[in-house]
């Protein structure tokens, strides 16, 4: 990693010094690429930022077998822009009916590298998720045995639990017992949003880790209501109060190896967001690295950026960091405001805004 003053000729031909940082190319350990036209529209943005990505399996129907995952992987590879070496890392969607032998076969054949646990009804396309953890005990035992991580959307699905408490309640009522029951199981808490969650993850590292999104580092729950209701900032888990955002910023910039990038870039058509019942998901893939590096800069922690962005996730998943690099420059840039699909579009998180950091072309 190098942190430098980069000299570039500016418009008026004077040499301006801009802060820059060069790191091993990052990976995105949690991304939704969808399928079909949407896949083809959004993949180039993720492939421009990241070398590899853990692809979420919540399609309809879900990616729940070796054959499904293998076919989906081929569709992603076929949708890559020309010359892109982006590598999709597949996951299996756990259901009440998941077969431990199928799980092991996909892992042994390197078709998938992890399984995704959605409590049924917790989030977008989770209706086929697990209704009761007891139903997948043999699956989790097998995963523990073969060293295959489970990636968890950690929110309680009890309708009586306040939406802002669902993550903490899940950790208390479901994750703690799970940790006890499966003491060797590797667990990633996806899109952590509370101070309680990051503390829990720290306490159980290194077999436990967490992904943290760019949006949860820059918005809090008040942002959702800034001047009116902001559907494009609505995702699950919903953004929490400011003290939690501060705890997340501390966690990612701390240098601790249990925290890694996971954009949770989750595209939905504008019409699905600006609707009577807005779909959950923030499309952050286009501005992810610009946002993350800005946070590290603001927290005076650029020296810890490469660990979070490019090393911690690879180490957790037993992979080498990428050999290629990316350079980010503290030079204002404007990302596209929306990505068109057919006659419609998908609104980009922080798109159209002037961001203080850019990716060097
Ligand atoms: N994060 C979200 O709000 N939505 C995700 C699902 C998920 O990751 O929970 C999606 O698929 O749209
Ligand atoms: Zn989720
Ligand atoms: Zn997600």
Automatic annotation (TrEMBL):
One of the Pfam families matching this protein, by short name: Amidohydro_1
Pathway annotation from the record: Pyrimidine metabolism; UMP biosynthesis via de novo pathway; (S)-dihydroorotate from bicarbonate: step 3/3
Cofactor note: Binds 2 Zn(2+) ions per subunit.
Cofactor(s) the protein requires to work: Zn(2+)
Keywords (A to Z) from UniProt: Hydrolase, Metal-binding, Pyrimidine biosynthesis, Zinc
Residues that hold Zn(2+) 2 according to the record: 116, 153, 191
Catalytic residues of the enzyme: 264
InterPro entries, alphabetized: Amidohydro-rel, DHOdimr, Dihydroorotase_CS, Metal_Hydrolase
Chain residues that bind substrate: 32-34, 58, 153, 236, 268, 280
Gene3D superfamilies documented for this protein: Metal-dependent hydrolases
Uppermost EC category: hydrolase
Modified-residue entries (N6-carboxylysine), positions: 116
EC number: 3.5.2.3
One Gene Ontology molecular-function label: dihydroorotase activity
List of residues binding Zn(2+) 1: 30, 32, 116, 264
Residues covered by the Amidohydrolase-related domain: 28-332
Reactions catalysed, as given in the entry: (S)-dihydroorotate + H2O = N-carbamoyl-L-aspartate + H(+)
Role: Catalyzes the reversible cyclization of carbamoyl aspartate to dihydroorotate.
Family: Belongs to the metallo-dependent hydrolases superfamily. DHOase family. Class II DHOase subfamily.
Oligomer and partners: Homodimer.
Protein's UniProt name: Dihydroorotase
Protein's organism: Aquamicrobium segne
Species classification: Bacteria, Pseudomonadati, Pseudomonadota, Alphaproteobacteria, Hyphomicrobiales
């Amino acid at each position: 990693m190098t942190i430098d003053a980069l000299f570039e000729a500016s418009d008026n031909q004077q040499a301006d010094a801009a802060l820059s940082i060069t790191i091993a190319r990052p990976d995105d350990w949690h991304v939704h690429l969808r399928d079909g036209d949407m896949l083809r529209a959004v993949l180039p943005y993720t492939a421009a930022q990241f070398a590899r990505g853990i692809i979420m399996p919540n399609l309809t129907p879900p990616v729940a077998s070796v054959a499904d995952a293998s076919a989906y992987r081929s569709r992603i590879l076929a949708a890559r822009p020309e010359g892109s070496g982006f590598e999709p890392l597949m996951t299996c969607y756990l259901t009440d009916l998941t077969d431990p032998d199928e799980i092991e076969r996909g892992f042994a054949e390197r078709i998938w590298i992890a399984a995704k646990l959605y409590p049924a009804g917790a989030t977008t396309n989770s209706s086929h998720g697990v209704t009761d953890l007891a139903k997948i005990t043999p699956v989790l035992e097998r995963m523990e045995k073969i060293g295959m991580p489970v990636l968890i959307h950690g929110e309680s699905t009890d309708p009586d639990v306040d939406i802002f408490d669902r993550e903490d309640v899940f950790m208390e009522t479901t994750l703690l017992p799970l940790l006890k029951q499966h003491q060797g199981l590797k667990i990633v808490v996806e899109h952590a949003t509370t101070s309680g969650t990051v503390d829990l993850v720290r306490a159980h590292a290194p077999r436990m880790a967490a992904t943290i999104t760019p949006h949860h580092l820059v918005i809090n729950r008040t942002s959702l209501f800034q001047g009116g209701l902001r559907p494009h900032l609505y995702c699950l888990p919903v953004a929490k109060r400011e003290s939690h955002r501060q705890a997340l910023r501390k966690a990612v910039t701390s240098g601790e190896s249990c925290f890694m990038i996971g954009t949770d870039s989750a595209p939905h058509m504008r019409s699905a967001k600006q609707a009577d019942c807005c779909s959950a998901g923030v499309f952050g893939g286009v501005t992810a690295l610009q946002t993350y590096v800005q946070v590290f800069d603001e927290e005076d922690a650029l020296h810890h950026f490469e660990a979070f962005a490019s090393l911690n996730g690879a180490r957790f998943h037993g992979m080498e960091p990428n050999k290629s690099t990316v350079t980010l420059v503290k030079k204002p840039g404007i990302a596209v405001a929306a990505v068109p699909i057919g006659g419609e579009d998908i609104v980009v998180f922080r798109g159209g805004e002037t961001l203080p950091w850019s990716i060097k072309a």
